[in-house]
Amino acid sequence: MKVIFGLHAEEKFQLFIERGFPISREQVLDCVEKPDRIDSGYNGRRVAQKVLDETHVLRVVYLELEGLKRIVTFY
């Protein structure tokens, strides 16, 4: 399934770099493709979760639309 990044998600990469905790596109894609857990989000969105290490979890909010996943944001 094709994955695209929305504008807000694209901006988050720089924000994480500025905060000293860079997240790569590969980490976000891995979270969506092979999550440890998926929850329901607001307005039909899904929230994929992946453990990064003992103290950090990556959560990716996305929409599934006709054969593609659109990454809304991550935290």
Keywords:
alpha+beta; 75 residues
Would you write up a description of this structure?
The chain is an alpha+beta fold. The chain is 28% helix and 44% strand. It has two helices and five strands, in the order E-H-H-E-E-E-E. It has helices at residues 7-18, 25-33, and strands at 2-5, 37-40, 46-53, 56-65, 68-74. It has a five-stranded mixed β-sheet. A hairpin with a 2-residue loop joins strand 4 and strand 5. The longest helix has 12 residues, at 7-18. The protein is globular, with a radius of gyration of 12 Å. It starts with a strand and ends with a strand. The relative contact order is 0.28. The mean pLDDT is 96.
Order of helices and strands: EHHEEEE
Give the distance, in angstroms, between the N- and C-terminal Cα atoms. Answer: 22 Å
C-alpha Rg (nearest Å): 12 Å
Number of strands: 5
Brief summary:
The chain is α+β, with helices and mostly antiparallel strands and 75 residues long.
Write the layout of secondary structure elements.
Blueprint: E1 2-5, H1 7-18, H2 25-33, E2 37-40, E3 46-53, E4 56-65, E5 68-74
Parallel strand pairs: 1-5
Antiparallel strand pairs: 2-3, 3-4, 4-5
